[in-house]
Design a protein that fits this description.
With 423 residues, this protein is α/β, with parallel strands linked by helices. The protein has three domains: 56 residues; 86 residues, no CATH class; 180 residues, P-loop containing nucleotide triphosphate hydrolases (Rossmann fold). Helix content is 45%, strand content 15%.
């Protein structure tokens, strides 16, 4: 029997190391939470009778290639002896002396109560570690069972993961699969399913008529995107039919940047400080073919977001377009969408495709919230680096960016194991 000690940041990592080094037949002897993480003692070629015999004689067990860890000795049970009746109970509360406490000192806990609190905390920690370990084992078993019974559906989930699609979106798309699929379908269906699930507005670069406000977090490229859209509109309809409005008075130089683009395009830029001034400017610009509003970049936790939403909501009929950066993390993108949902954005623009190593997170957010996509941008050039959204082109680009990367079984079990088990 070979026993080894593993220490990892969490239980999933520890179990992954046990499986990689000792195989699926390894037996977990004990787990313990340490300041540096989780300690797991595992063994292969486990012999329970040998462990008990060695423990009875006080012989330490360790494999030739194991770390110097001894099996915990199992002491033989003593003959039952009935202790005195009074030794089973703590002294009555009335007999416990209460130390005098000064008025400015916090009350101290009785040693018996303090020990009970410590024991409870330790028990909760051990139960948490045990539950985590059981979840890891259950996830692995459920995924392996699915991979064996439904290999083609498992292949689809593996392909979704390779593309960076979030687990909840991948499971949702899996439900839409036909009951019977062949190997060829399992290979190409994920890309087709993603293309069909990705909503596209069909709005072309020359269809910018009306009033459009670009909103979103700071740093996503709203001002540059407005310049690209304005340049396209000027080329098609002339500078006199295009106007720009700046409501970004928080960021230093924001209005100056938009005015610089306006001078290059021959388009006038109008400032608006509140809902009333915005309504007056829009009334003045009635009849213009294209009016683009540049707003301040505001995070979801910023109290100014509600104020900005009120200004746009009170300005009358306009088209709100949420701008998201493709190179942001999936969680940040999701939080941004949820923060701007009260504004009821009509569509989305996905920027910085050239800076995104993985498009799966952005695609997942768009599919999850059913946000139609207007345009995509992939560079700083005005007006070249902007295109009307095309779902097939976007999905193919996502597939090409991760060519050759195949997730292993431990990753798949972590993402889908519990969901498969519950199903």
């Amino acid at each position: 029997m070979k026993i080894k000690r593993f220490v990892a940041a969490d239980m999933r990592q520890a179990m992954r190391e046990v499986r990689e080094e000792q195989g699926p037949e390894a037996v977990i002897l004990s787990t313990r939470r340490l300041p540096e993480g989780i300690e797991v003692i595992a063994a292969i070629d486990y012999d329970e009778a040998l462990v008990r015999e060695a423990a009875r004689h006080g012989v330490p067990l360790a494999g030739a290639d194991a770390s110097p860890v001894a099996a915990a000795p199992i002491a033989p049970l003593p003959s039952p002896v009935r202790p005195p009746r009074t030794s089973l109970l703590p002294p009555p509360l009335a007999t416990i002396p209460t130390p005098a406490v000064a008025a400015n000192e916090p009350p101290t806990m009785h040693p018996l109560m303090e020990r009970a609190v410590q024991d409870t905390a330790r028990m909760r920690s051990e139960l948490g570690s045990l539950r985590e370990m059981l979840e890891v084992q259950l996830s692995s078993l459920a995924w392996n069972d699915m991979d064996r019974r439904q290999p083609l559906r498992a292949r689809v989930l593996r392909e979704m993961t390779r593309l960076g699609i979030e687990a909840d979106v991948a499971r949702q798309l899996l439900v839409e699969l036909p009951e019977q699929i062949n190997a060829e379908q399992a290979r190409y269906l994920p890309l087709g399913m993603l293309s069909r699930s990705l909503a596209v507005s069909g709005r072309g670069l020359s269809d910018g008529q009306g009033i459009t406000a670009l909103v979103g977090p700071t740093g996503v490229g709203k001002t540059t995107t407005i310049a690209k859209l304005a340049a396209r509109a000027v080329l098609r309809h002339g500078a006199e039919q295009v106007a720009l409005i700046s409501t970004d008075h928080y960021r230093i130089g924001a209005a100056a940047q938009l005015e610089h683009y306006g001078r290059l395009l021959g388009v006038r830029v109008y400032p608006a400080y509140d809902a009333e001034s915005l309504r007056k400017v829009l009334e003045l610009l009635r009849g213009r073919h294209t009016v683009l509003i540049d707003t301040a970049g505001v995070a979801g936790s910023d109290p100014r977001l509600a104020q900005q939403m009120d200004i746009l909501s009170d300005a009358g009929e306009l088209r709100a377009c949420l701008v998201l950066a493709a190179n942001a993390q999936s969680q940040s993108l999701d939080e941004a969408v949820r923060a701007y949902l009260p504004l009821k954005p009509n569509a989305c623009i996905l920027t910085k495709l050239d800076e995104a190593p993985n498009l799966g997170g952005a695609l997942s957010v768009l599919i999850r919230h059913r946000l139609p996509l207007d345009y995509t941008t992939d560079g700083q050039r005005v007006p070249e680096d902007i295109a009307a959204a095309d779902a097939r082109v976007l999905v193919c680009r996502a597939a090409q960016s991760l060519k050759g990367h195949v997730p292993d079984d431990s990753v798949m079990a972590e993402r889908f194991g519990l969901a498969v088990a519950n199903a």
